[in-house]
Specification:
Radius of gyration: 31 Å
Low-confidence stretches: 73-84, 289-294
Oligomer: single chain
Shape: globular
Strand content: over 45%
Helix content: under 10%
Structural class: mainly beta
Largest sheet: 16 strands, antiparallel, barrel
Number of helices: 2
Length: 389
């Protein structure tokens, strides 16, 4: 009896131990908690926190398709190219597709807001082109610029800003601080300043609508600084509910010349906004060759013809989807530009714009005009499709 009880007890103990081990074998470890992307609404819509950091990131950009017709853009006509049959020239479209990728970041620090902005553009399309007779003996040689091809990839913006201090690749404060010349596509028929440049800038916000900027700039291309002395831009602005008054002054270190612009913006009503901007610059020492894109008398900032120029225009919103935009420009060399368009938001983020442009530019004087060309009138049009995100 004792032996039987002992055997039964031993068997029960073995079963209990086996059951415990079997239970232990199927225990599953608790999963780590998932780390989801969190929305950051400090800097506006579209930002989210980069996981594991306090940095907010926004990714955006646009896809654009342009179709251009007519002569606007050059004194010789933008669309004249060699006919494939070899019996003259014909007109063709100017077309360009673009993908622009933009990023923004923001983070609060003990020294203020730390921000960055980048924009990179990728382009495919055709440029203006014409047939030429290099030595006068024939045959005619066709430019290939009119053929569709992958064009430039450009870094348009790449700057860092901490508080009021900004460094990196930007557009000149001579244009950005005072504002671009209207909401038309071709806003530089009469140019109002150079754009691309590396900068060291400081922005001041004095409150009550007053702000200011000081910018040390490198320039671009033939307008790049040729010594350790930078180009310098300074500006002041007063902004109120009715609009704004802005002034900027620029020192071109290459030519040791000063240029300036003043601007008045007026919000006439919820539907109508108007602006007028005037520029003046000395050109006594300015003598850029036509290889820079213009004849003599133009520099990094004073790119209009002669000493003075004026730009004016505005926007009228018919409704939430449709707006009319216009700009008129004129300078001391009697160059005239007129641009007008209708922009329609088909759905949120998708806009179609139809624009008509007129220019009367050039001069019989090689020192005055674009490449010294004779005065000529051109008309062109542009249809733009743009999806922004």
């Amino acid at each position: 009896m004792n032996i039987k009880s002992l055997l039964l007890g031993s068997a029960a103990a073995l079963i209990a131990v086996s059951g415990a081990r079997a239970a232990d074998a199927v225990v599953v470890a608790e999963p780590e908690p998932a780390e989801y992307v969190k929305i950051c609404d400090v800097y506006g819509a579209g930002y989210f926190y980069i996981p594991g950091t306090e940095t907010c990131l926004r990714i955006g950009g646009y896809v654009r398709y342009d179709i251009g017709v007519g002569d606007h853009g050059t004194n010789d006509g933008v669309n004249n190219v060699l006919d494939h049959m070899g019996d003259g020239s014909h007109d063709t479209y100017y077309k360009q597709a673009r993908f622009a990728l933009k990023t923004w970041t923001g983070q609060e620090t003990e020294l203020g807001t730390l921000k960055t902005y980048t924009e990179t553009r990728f382009n495919f399309g055709n440029n203006t082109g014409d047939y030429t007779d290099p030595d006068g003996a024939g045959p005619l040689t066709a430019s290939t610029d009119w053929q569709g091809h992958n064009k430039t990839t450009s870094l348009n913006f790449a700057w860092i800003q901490l508080g009021g201090l900004r460094v990196g690749k930007d557009e000149s404060a001579f244009d950005t601080f005072i504002g671009y010349a209207g909401n038309v596509i071709q806003d530089t028929i009469v140019p109002y300043g150079g754009f691309d440049t590396n900068v060291i800038q400081y922005y001041f916000d004095a409150g009550n609508g007053f702000s200011a900027v000081v910018s040390l700039e490198e320039g671009y291309g033939a307008y790049s600084i040729d010594s350790y002395v930078p180009h310098v831009v300074g500006g002041v602005k007063w902004t109120q509910g009715w609009g704004a008054i802005t002034g900027v002054v620029a020192y071109d270190s290459n030519y040791e010349e000063v240029s300036g612009k003043v601007r008045l913006d007026v919000n006439v009503s919820n539907e109508l906004s108007l602006f007028i901007m005037g520029g003046y610059g000395a050109d006594n020492n300015i003598g850029d060759s036509p290889t820079t894109g213009f004849a003599g008398g133009r520099a990094m900032y004073k790119q209009w013809g002669g000493n003075w120029a004026v730009w004016g225009g505005g926007t009228y919103k018919f409704n939430e989807k449709t707006s009319f935009n216009a700009q008129v420009s004129y300078d001391d060399w009697k160059n005239l530009g007129i641009a007008a368009n209708i922009a329609y938001d088909v759905v949120p983020g998708f806009t179609v714009t139809a624009e008509v442009d007129y220019q009367n530019v050039g001069s019989d004087d090689l020192a005055k005009g674009w490449f010294g060309a004779d005065k000529k009138s051109n008309v062109g049009g542009l249809l733009r499709f743009q999806r922004s995100f």
